[in-house]
Amino acid sequence: MSIAQVALDTPLPRTFDYLIPAACPLGTEDIGRRVRVSFGRRELWGILVGLADRSELPPEQLKPLLSVDRVLPPLPASLLALARFAADYYHYPYGACLLSLLPPALKRPVTPRPPPAYAYALTPAGIAAAQRLSPRATAQRRLAAHLMAGPVAAAELSGLKTTLRDWLKRGLIAAVKTPPRSPCHFTPEVAPTLGRGQAEAVGAILAKTDHFAAWLLFGVTGSGKTEVYLRLIEAVLGRGRQALVLVPEIHLTPQLTERFRRRYPAARLVSLHSGLSDGERYANWLACLNGGADIVLGTRLAVFAPLQRLGLIVVDEEHDPSYKQMEGLRYSARDVAVWRARQAGVPVVLGSATPALETWLNAQQGRYRRLDLPERAGAAALPEIRLVDTRTDRPRQGLSAALLAALEENLSRGAQSLVFINRRGYAPTLLCNACGHVTTCPRCAAHLVLHRQKGGFRLQCHHCGLTRPPPPSCPECGALDLRASGQGTQRLEETLAERFPEARILRVDRDSVARKGRFAAVRDAVHEGEVDILVGTQILAKGHDFPRLTLVGVVGADGALLSADYRAGERLFAQLMQVAGRAGRGGDPGRVLVQTAYPHHPLYQALVRHDYPAYAAQALAERRAAEFPPYVRQAMLRVDARSDEAAQAFLEAARALALELAQGVTVFDPAPALLARVANRSRWQLLTQSRSRSRLQAFLAAWVQRLRDLPASGLNWILDVDPLEF
Ligand code: ADP
Ligand code: ZN
Questions:
Q1: What is the DSSP string of 480-526?
Q2: Which of 287, 290, 71, 310 is CA-nearest to residue 179?
Q3: Whose C-alpha lies nearest to ligand 1, atom 25?
């Protein structure tokens, strides 16, 4: 074999041939290795994906490989196959797909050295010191709490860098070079006795761990789904296999990591998510590739972790939209997880209190097997959900009298409350009282959002990042009468602080936890009872366990009911069930108040009864009647261009090609995207759909080839298979 077939990160959907230098023979066992090649005038890292005797190109046109990385083990064949599947299904170039699965560090010209310390562990002196810490040494106590359960990956301590350095200097902790599997300093947490539903679920799944099966674990919030995952993981680790656990949100990884570590201190736990530094992510990925990970916990990108002994995949909160990547390879990590489990012949468990309608239908049709956990674990009961009719109880500054009274009462009992509003900033719009003009972004088809900052107010675009001071007068009519209209987290925080001056109020949204480690501090403060009222966005809704929280108020939810996006209702229902699920997870019963002007809407009626199946039945009936997913399969061709005309012209040409090829596939007309302009780029889209997935796939494969020949200068296009956004 003298020819190396190399996958490269280029838009061209093929591999590239290179000569194998005689001094550097390669065999089939080298497939999956990283190779350095020259490509045009650049040098690139690629992956060796095949060997051949000859090339279609004459030998004199072929360049030799520049070098072969023999330090990094070859990527496992299963990972190459997974990339192949993703490239085919999402109609994305194979090389670009494969290279996008590698940690960014491996694409740099000079391969970084693995970070000096993989993890840190307490020394004997450190163990002694940890037991003598003063209650006020909060950072040190947090560090000690992490490390008491055994060595902790450097990545998970990134919020505690200063303390860490200090302890290293004092010899209280030591660096550990390899992924830790080492004696722990305390006995593992005792597992609770499983409830009946839990025991049945665990039993059913464990009865079939040696081949593929897709399970839907349908359990209300607090029903103990995580406990089920823990038992399954234990069984899988016991057989020397690895468990891959996906969560929707970076902020959830520390909480779960802690829980896993308390239970299985000896297991080598590795996290993978985009919140890690390049070095940390490289180290963790390497630990996976080297077989040094027992449990891999991560966000959507972890679904591509290089694992050779995979025994189980868990997708927690499987309905969450953040499993869908919205740029580049637009994959759904949940769907890839199911495919990967099938490929590996292992079970995949999809957990949710509000499954995606796709998943629910799959379960109804028998493709997934459903297991129910209808009750909360232990003594906790589901919270009571009440609707506050804002047509009669008119909110002032966003808050109804009923919600204010409930907050007051909760405060006097010393219990915690959460006010949920899914809008960050001070107010969503700046409005002219004279002419009704709303300040918009000059670069996007969107309103500017008013934010309060140290120096005063600023307007911010949530789509392109533009910020500017508010205008002194209306740009339209010149009137000076501009006012903030609507509610955001900052404004609610302000109103609550005026209304309850004695309360300790904490705002939690993307802006307030932007800095690394901030979210962990928030979580600790809530657990320690240092907060009375939380004001927050969906960041707080997902999965967190705050035992003292007994009241949740929901503000401004109605907007989603009026959205042009047909999935908005599904997302709203899931979000409200989830945020309601934060209440009453400790011993005390929880209460939820939802402010709405549509109390009779079927969505809210199902919510009050905690009745996801009723909601799903109604939503699925609507989808079926309207021929929307999951009853059809869709693919969206998205374009952005300098002008509407350019975008539209490209899509008209694309449509003409599609009409030639489409059989059993509906091709719609080009239309502007819901957000029609971002950063001065016009965004248009063309929807195609079919009842048959295989027909749609065959059509897309042919269409994409033809699309690559269309003139497209100055514009970007991408095919979005199973799109979630309009
Ligand atoms: P979910 O993931 O379904 O929201 P969790 O697994 O977080 O639920 O469980 C909610 C709470 O119930 C946790 O505090 C957990 O420790 C507790 N729990 C789970 N299973 C049991 C059980 N069998 N007995 C007692 N408590 C349990
Ligand atoms: Zn903008």
A1: S-EEEES--HHHHHHHHHHH-TTS-EEEESTTTT-STTHHHHHHHHH
A2: 287
A3: 378
Dihedral (CA of 300, 302, 307, 312) sign? negative
Nearest ligand to residue 466 Cα: 2
Nearest to 126 by CA among 156, 152, 147, 149: 147
Span from the CA of 560 to the centroid of ligand 2 (angstroms): 22
* Beta bridge mates, 594: 387, 554
Q: Cβ contacts of residue 12 below 8 Å, gap of 6+? A: 93, 95
In angstroms, rounded to a whole number, what is the distance separating the alpha carbons of residues 183 and 380? 35
**Quick one: which of 82, 507, 130 has its CA closest to 305?**
82
Residue nearest to atom 9 of ligand 1 (CA): 224
Contact call for residues 407 and 553 (beta carbons, < 8 A): yes
Average pLDDT in the 490-517 region?
A: 92
**Quick check: helix, strand or coil at residue 141?**
helix
Lowest mean pLDDT segment, chosen from 67-81, 146-160, 209-223, 362-376: 146-160
d(CA 540, CA 250): 12
Q: What value does the mean pLDDT take over residues 194-218?
A: 95
**Given the CA of residue 228, which atom of ligand 1 is nearest to it?**
6
Distance in Å, CA 475 to ligand 2 centroid? 17
Kindly give the residue spans of alpha helices, DSSP state H, lying in 170-293.
Answer: 196-206, 225-238, 252-263, 278-289
d(CA 451, CA 491): 9
Instruction: Name the pLDDT band for 82 (thresholds 50, 70, 90).
Output: very high
Tell me how crowded residue 221 is: count the other CB atoms within 10 A of its CB: 24
φ/ψ of 38, rounded to 5, equals -95, 140
Other residues' Cβ atoms within 10 Å of the Cβ of residue 190:
7
Question: 359: part of which helix (H) or strand (E)?
Answer: helix 357-364
Report which protein residue has its CA nearest ligand 1's atom 26: 378
DSSP letter (8 states) at residue 349: E
Three-state secondary structure call for residue 154: helix
Residue 681 has pLDDT above 50, yes or no: yes
Q: How far apart are CA 314 and CA 317, in angstroms?
A: 10
- Rounded CA separation 648/489 (Å): 38
C-alpha 440 – ligand 2 centre gap (Å): 8
